[in-house]
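Fold in tokens:
===
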Amino acid sequence: MRTAEITRSTKETQITVWLSLDGGPVEISTGVGFFDHMLNSFAVHGGLGLKVHTEGDLYVDCHHTIEDTGIVIGQALCQALGNKGGIQRFGSFFIPMDEALAFSSVDISGRPFLVFDASFPEESIGGYDSCMTEEFFRALAFQAGITLHLKCEYGKNSHHMTEAVYKAAAHALKAAVQETGAGVLSTKGIL
């Protein structure tokens, strides 16, 4: 069963995440409307079952809420992947969203890394700071132990650009976690 449930509680955030690599219900509640929209899109386009309940110090700003949610989703992803055997391992995808085009490539390698190349014209989208897109994906990639490349090739609307990035990441991840029935895809024999 490729599922995980993680709870993390700090002085800044209280987060519970349930994740299934093979689909299931999607229930998102973080207190940041646009972030909820992005996580919903990430789950639906990634073919994931995902339940996220986050209570954060939004009276400060959205930073801790979004970054810490990325940490916990990344931990759940790592746990659900187990020894990373029997999966495709690599995935890449382009997503057009109106005038915006985003690309993602992922390697479920056990080697955490993020390359992020996107500049958003608006600083915020509702209560979501555009700079938090990079922070979310960095937290997710490093906790999940994956190499993740994200690029918004072009765009003019921060909503479209950000949504394209989340959806591209979701589709790349969906391809990478596809079951192959083979062993660990590595010349080393382990990841």
Notes: Strands lie at 3-9, 13-20, 26-29, 49-56, 90-97, 100-107, 113-117, 124-125, 128-129, 147-154. Residues 3-176 form a domain with the Ribosomal Protein S5; domain 2 fold (CATH 3.30.230.40). The first strand starts at residue 3 and ends at 9. The chain has one domain: 3-176.
